[in-house]
């Protein structure tokens, strides 16, 4: 079965508040079997519009990635991000 991935492109406006979100979301990722492959780091936009922060999280399947994203635990963490950043999140099935 192909892996599932959450890919997030983020522009942080309040670093302190965003770090509260990160601290809340990190244990939820582990709880749902996720593994962070990319979190922040230097970015080179090669084409199109980029965001300053990018995250890739691997899950056992696309369904598992969606369970994480829609979980009550992550919804609580997501509320902390609301006023701290603008973000695009997608769930995608691996090759």
Automatic annotation (TrEMBL):
Stretches assigned to the DUF1330 domain: 3-94
InterPro entries per the UniProt record, alphabetical: Dimeric_a/b-barrel, DUF1330
Coiled coil: none
Family annotation (Gene3D superfamilies): 3.30.70.100
Name of the protein this chain belongs to: Uncharacterized protein (DUF1330 family)
């Amino acid at each position: 079965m192909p892996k599932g991935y959450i890919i997030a492109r983020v522009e942080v406006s309040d670093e302190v508040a965003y770090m509260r979100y990160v601290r809340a979301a990190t244990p939820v990722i582990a709880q749902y079997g996720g593994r962070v492959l990319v979190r922040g780091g230097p970015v080179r936009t090669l084409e199109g519009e980029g965001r300053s922060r990018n995250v890739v999280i691997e899950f056992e399947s696309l369904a598992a990635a969606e369970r994480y994203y829609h979980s009550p635990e992550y919804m609580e963490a997501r509320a902390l991000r609301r006023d701290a950043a603008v973000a695009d999140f997608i769930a995608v099935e691996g090759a």
